[in-house]
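user:
I keep going back and forth on a fold encoding question. Separate attempts, laid side by side, tell us more than any discussion would. Would you put together a sequence-and-structure record for a protein of your own picking? Write it directly below this note and I will take it from there.

assistant:
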Amino acid sequence: MLKIENLSATVGEPDAAKTIINGLSLEVPAGEVHAIMGPNGAGKSTLSYVLTGREGYEVTGGSATLDGQDILALDPEDRASAGLFLSFQYPIEIPGVPVMTFVRTAMNAQRKARGEPEISAPDYLKKSRDVAKMLNLDADMLKRPVNVGFSGGEKKRLEIYQMLMLEPRFMVLDETDSGLDIDALRTVAEGVNALRAPERGMLVITHYQRLLDYIKPDKVHVLAKGRIIKSGGPELALRLEKEGYDGVLAEAV
């Protein structure tokens, strides 16, 4: 599904660009959830930005495909239409744009790009109510401007609301657990797990094992200095939680 081969990328002005992703290779088949863990500055968030096309990041080598399609050649909105979704570590505020207007507009833009009919207002409202109920989102929150005045936990739940409404084919979750208390973490994880399916894939970026107690990964990868240095099963995350990164980093030298 998602295949990354020898990917390298820089950030910053051309005359002072810094290499953050450095020969990274990774494959996430359809139906699987993979977790990426690593120390601060390893390149975890940068990887998510490069995949989704954030400005300021330049790919200098390698490739990334989604079901064989070169996503690096696409504009960010076309990557989204192809089914790629990013849940931000720090969701931005969009003053003046109500949540429901924003999400319905995004849904219909993606449907149009895929040659599908727009979702009707009744169908949208029904789906929105069902998703909001699952995530314990108050209906009034969906009438407010996107993320304006929201707590950290509310912003993260709203990210998952958008994901459930859009139903992407591949999801990148960038530290979705940061800033969540235990109840909000459980609620967010339930929303994420509701989208697990044989035709979908997921990449979960996190510092901590606690998120992986709720979103069970098929594989865990350790990212350091811009590349994957070790991969394993869920037990690898437990080892990192117990021992830290020093042992794994030493093994990769």
About this structure: The two ends are 30 Å apart (CA to CA). The first helix runs from residue 44 to 52. The mean pLDDT is 92.
